[in-house]
Amino acid sequence: MTPRRRLPKNWWKTALGLLFTAIMLFPAYWMLNVSLTRTGDLRADPPHWFPWDPTLEGYQAVFDQQIPALGTSLFVGLGSVLLTVVIAAPAGYALALLHLRGGRTLNFLLLVAQMIPAVVMAMGFYAVYNNLGLLNSIGGLIIADTTIAVPFGVLLFTAFMSGIPRELLQAARVDGAGTWRTFRSIVLPVSRNSVLTVSLFAFLWAWSDFIFASTLSRNADFIPITLSIYNYIGNNTTQWNAIMATAVVASVPAAVLLVVAQRYVAAGVTAGAVKD
Amino acid sequence: MTSISPTARPGAGEHGAAGGEPAAPRRRRRRSTLNPSQWSAVAFAAPLLIYLVLFYAYPLWRNIDLSVHDYTVRAFVQGDAEFVGWQNYVEVIRSPTFPTALRNTALFTLGSIAVQFTLGLGLAVFFRANFRLSGVLRALFLVPWLLPLIVSASTWAWMLNSDNGIVNSVLTAFGFDPVNWLTSPGMSLLSVTLANIWLGIPFNLVILYSGLQNIPDDMYEAAALDGAGAWRRFRSITLPLLRAVSAITLLLGLIYTLKVVDVIWVMTTGGPGDTSTTLAIWSYREAFGTGQPDFSPAAAVGSLLILIALVFGFLHLQLQRRQEDS
Predict the structure, then answer these.
(1) Cα-based distances in Å from B18 to A95, B2, B10, B155, B288
(2) Which residues of B touch A104 (CB under 8 A)?
(3) pLDDT averaged over chain B?
(4) Measuring CA to CA, which residue among B173, B266, B166 is closest to residue A43?
(5) Which of A114, A225, B184, B303 lies 20 to 30 Å from B162 when distance is taken between CA atoms?
(6) In this predicted model, what pLDDT tens digit does every residue of A215-268 receive, in sequence order?
(7) What residue in A sits closest to B303 (Cα-Cα)?
(8) At A272, is the pLDDT very low, low, confident or very high (cuts 50, 70, 90)?
(9) For an interface test with B, which of A24, A132, A148, A248 has the most B Cβ atoms less than 10 Å from its Cβ?
(10) Taking a C-beta distance cutoff of 8 angstroms, is the pair B310, A112 a contact?
(11) Predicted local confidence at residue B75, as pLDDT
(12) Chain B partners of A154 at a C-beta cutoff of 8 Å?
C-alpha cells in the first residue's frame, strides 16, 4: 500500500463521503431553506430548492416573538449545568477516589436511573410538583431537566477521575491538603475536560427537552423555546417559514457546540455507552 | 429503599442517612493508599444521595402510587383517590389500544435499531478509512443528533407534508403517486420510524467508530497479505471483534427508542387513530395529551414501560460485567 497508489482511491472516497453527508444533512438544509422562503412561495409546486429570493420575515417573527422563550431556555440550560456539576462532580470524586462504601450499588442505581423513561418521570414530577406548588416554575423545570444529565455526569466523572494518577493525590496529602482541598485544588482542575463534557451534555439536554417542558411548564409565564415551537406549530400551521426560522435559531447552541467542542461531544457519547 | 445506614456518625451531612446504600461487606477489605475516612466519602456523595431520593425515588414512588389508585382530576387536587390495586393494570391490558401499542412499540423499536445500526456500522467502516475531509464529514454527521428533537420532528413533519412536502414533490417528479405520509393509517408508523432512524444514525456511528478504533491496524494488514478481500476482512475481523460494542450499542438503542415521545408526538400525536401509538405515546397522551388527564392508567402504562426497559437494562449490565471480567 504505497501512498501513491492510495491517492486516487481516496479522492473517490471523499466524493462518496460528501454525498453521504449531503443526504444526511438534507433535513437540516431544508429547514434553513424553508426559513428563508417567502410566505407566498411556501406552497409552490415544485418547492424552491434554493431560496433564490430570500426573505428574513421568518426571522423577523422570531425576534418579535421568541426572545423571551430563548432567554428562558438559556437560563434553564445554564441552571441545569450548574446543578448537574455541583451534584455529580463531588459524587464522582467519592466513587472514584474515596472508595465510598456501597459504591457498586450506587453505580448500579445510576445505570438503572438512565433507563427510566422520561414520560414516567414527568408523571411523577407532575404529581409531586402539584403538591409542592412547583408546577410552572423555572426552578422546578431545571430540577426535572437535570434528571437526564445527573446519572450520566456521575458515571462520566467516576470514569475520568479513576484515571487520575495516585501520586498526584499523595503529593497533595503529604503537603497537608485535606480531602476537600485535594478535590478543589487538584481533582477539579485536572478534570476540566470532563467538567466541560458533562456541562455540554447537561446544557444540550435541558435546551432540547420537550417532555418536561410540555408537562411541568405548560402554563408558565415564561416557556422554553421547544414548547414555544410546539405551540407555534399548533396555532400557526401556515407560517412554516417562521416555524423553521425558530427551529434554526433553536439549533444555534448545537451548531456552536459542534464547532467549538466537537471532540468533547464524541467523547461524551462514547463515555455514556462504553465503559473501559 | 430503607436506609440501613452503617455510618450513623454525626456530621455525615444533614441527610447522611441517605447514604445507606447497602454496604457490601466484602468491600470493606479495600484499603487504599489514601485511606481517607469513610465519612468524608459519604459527605462528598451526600448531595447525589439526597438528589436521588428526592428527584428519582420519590417521583417514581408517586408514579406507582398513581397507578394503584383511581386518580381523577378532582381526586388529584384533593388527594383522596380510592385505592384500586391492580385494576388500572387490568384495564390497560384489556384495552383495545394495548395490543396495537405493543405491536407499534415492537415495530418502531426493532425497525429503528435494525436500520440505524446497519447504516451506522456501514458508515463507521467507511469513515475508518483515511481520506481527505473524513474527520470533518464525520463531525457533520453528529448534527441530527445535536438538534433539539422538536426541531428535527417539525422539519420532518414539513418534509413529509402531503400537499407541499418536498418528499412528495420528488416522488411526483419521478412519476410516483404522492403519499399521505403522516395522515394515512398505513404510513404513519413508517414515517415516524424513518425520522427516528435518521436521528439514531449519529449515535450508532460514533460508538461503533470508537469501537473500530480499538481494532489494531496490523490485523487488517495481515489479513490483506493473506489475500482476504474487503468483505472477508469485515466478516472475519470487524464483526467478531466488534461484537461487545455492537451488543451495547443495540441495547442502548433499544432502551433509548422505547422511551421516544417527542418525535412521534410532534409528527403524528400517535395517530391517525392509534396507528402510530407506542406505549410511551399512549402513556403521554392519557396523562397530558388530551384536555382530560387520566393519570392512573397512564401511570400503569408507564410502569409497564419501565418493566420492559429494566429487562433490557439488566441485559446491558450483564453484558458490561462480562466484558469487564474478560
Answers:
(1) 15, 9, 13, 45, 33
(2) 24, 27
(3) 84
(4) B166
(5) A225
(6) 999 888 889 999 999 988 877 667 888 889 999 999 998 888 888 877 777 777
(7) A120
(8) low
(9) A24
(10) yes
(11) 73
(12) 48
Statement: the pTM of the whole predicted model exceeds 0.90: no
Chain A CB contacts of B127 under 8 Å are 17
A177, three cell numbers? 491538603
Q: Which three cell numbers stand for residue B315?
A: 441485559
What's the rounded Cα separation, in Å, for the pair A226 and B266? 11
Which residues of chain B lie closer than 8 angstroms to A275, CB-CB?
320, 324
Instruction: Give the helix ranges, DSSP H, for chain A.
Output: 3-35, 57-65, 67-96, 103-113, 118-132, 138-161, 166-174, 179-182, 188-190, 192-208, 211-216, 225-235, 240-250, 252-260, 262-273
* Identity of the amino acid at A34: V
Of all helices (H) and strands (E), which one includes residue B109?
helix B97-128
Grid coordinates standing for A215? 408537562
Average pLDDT over residues A151-164: 91
What's the pLDDT at A273?
A: 58
Q: Which of B28, B53, B55 to mutate to test the interface with A (most CBs of A within 10 A)?
A: B55
At a CB cut-off of 8 Å and minimum separation 6, what does B219 contact? B237, B241
Q: Report residue A262 as a C-alpha cell.
A: 466537537
